[in-house]
Amino acid sequence: MTAEIISVGTELLMGDVINTNSAFIACELKGIGVNVYRISVVGDNSARLTDALKTAASRADTIILTGGLGPTQDDLTKETVAEYLNLEMIFDKSSWDNIVETLNKRGRPVTENNKKQAFFPKGSAILKNNCGTAAGCAVTANGVTYIMLPGPPYEMEAMFKNEVIPILTQKSDIRFYSKTLRICGVGESAVEDMLNDIIASQTNPTIAPYAKTYEVHLRVTASAASEKTARALAAPVVDKIYAILGDNIYGEDDTTIEDAAITLLRETGYTIATAESCTGGLLAARLVNVPGASGVFMEGVVTYSNEAKIKRLGVSPATLEQYGAVSEQTAKEMAVGIAKGSDTNIGVAITGIAGPGGETNGKNVGLVYIAIFLNGQVTVNEYHFTGDRTKIRDGSAQTALDMLRRVLWRLKRE
Ligand code: ATP
Ligand code: MG
Asked: Which atom of ligand 1 is nearest to the CA of 149?
């Protein structure tokens, strides 16, 4: 199977919006063994889109389009494909019902031009949109499948996973199975290095590392005549990777590091509170991302000033005076203070210099201390993050979650 991706939207050509949809789709296609031959971007213009369709259809058997499924005049992807393939546009009642229901739920008026979103090229399979009004569609003509997806990334990604992958795997007689292992605490090159031998010797399953923000995802993909066989091919390789990377792997597939941390808190029966300085509540926000966090996460405070650290957490003025707010000693007292004050088993504290200013007495931007109080003991680590303020703050929150889940994991194993 060979595919081309066409992103439709003038905003993409103007540089106002980054074409993340194409990257996402290309990545997904690679995961199921589909070769992408070309990626193009076309403005909201029917003649130029027709032109792009013509060339793509001469080279590929699968063309994936994103954008231009909306209700307005400049949304013309389905109409252009229909015209190019000489197909009528047909009204789909169930899509229309879904549009009306979604708009009603959002308290938005149903207008005449919304109807446009319920018309599809004749013979299309309708691709459900669980996150918005624009359904997608897939139609095959002259051996080429045209898959039309909405532009908003959140809607497109969900539709791709739920609706498109099954179509593509159906189209080929090969079945795929893939598992993503999520790693934190080791960089991409170190991961590759540790797995060098298996990555090099492995063709089925393939092992592909993806660098994410402060973590690495490893996707193991096996192909076979049945999903069961593909699964069986992947399993021993996944086991081998676990044996090498051990608890650097915090979760699988869609599990986030905060999911992993909250699950471990639930399993161990521990409660947690957080005290943050430079991250300004990012750690608390990450924990609250997880539904049901309320069972284990009691309180999060942002103690930005020295006064707040003294008043809310009981950090000693002498410690602040002697070692400074960004120090191992202060981090420790913050972690103990928040756990005592909120009556939790665990207290996590973050204090650091997010920059760009704020360098003092040999303490550089990016210096961050993270402390965890647990069972009467405090562990504190010193980190040196690089990058801008956002990157340093994100790295601090992520690393605190990593420290937390490692501590809990060890506890669970004991
Ligand atoms: P809508 O109903 O919102 O109009 P649509 O299917 O018509 O949806 P577009 O109008 O093309 O989609 O795009 C809607 C928004 O989605 C764009 O403003 C942009 O923010 C985002 N978007 C579109 N295409 C891409 C892309 N290739 N990569 C990333 N974001 C995109
Ligand atoms: Mg639109």
From this structure: 6
Contacts of 256 by beta carbon, 8 Å cutoff, 6+ apart? 182, 289, 290
Q: Which atom of ligand 1 is nearest to the CA of 41?
A: 27
- pLDDT tens, residue by residue, 105-119: 989 998 888 999 999
Q: State the pLDDT at residue 113.
A: 87
Query: What is the spatial distance between Cα 332 and Cα 372, in angstroms, rounded to a whole number?
Result: 7
Ligand nearest to the CA of 16: 1
**CB-based burial of residue 89 (10 Å sphere; 0-12 exposed, 13-18 middle, 19+ buried)?**
middle
Q: What is the mean pLDDT of residues 41-62?
A: 96
What CA–CA distances, in Å, run from 141 to 75, 80, 86, 146, 148? Answer: 22, 14, 10, 8, 14
Cα–Cα distance measured from residue 128 to residue 161, given in angstroms and rounded to the nearest whole number: 11
| Whether the Cβ atoms of residue 102 and residue 96 lie closer than 8 Å to each other | no
* pLDDT (tens digit per residue) in 200-230: 888 899 898 888 889 999 999 998 888 899 9
Q: For the whole model, what pTM was predicted?
A: 0.77
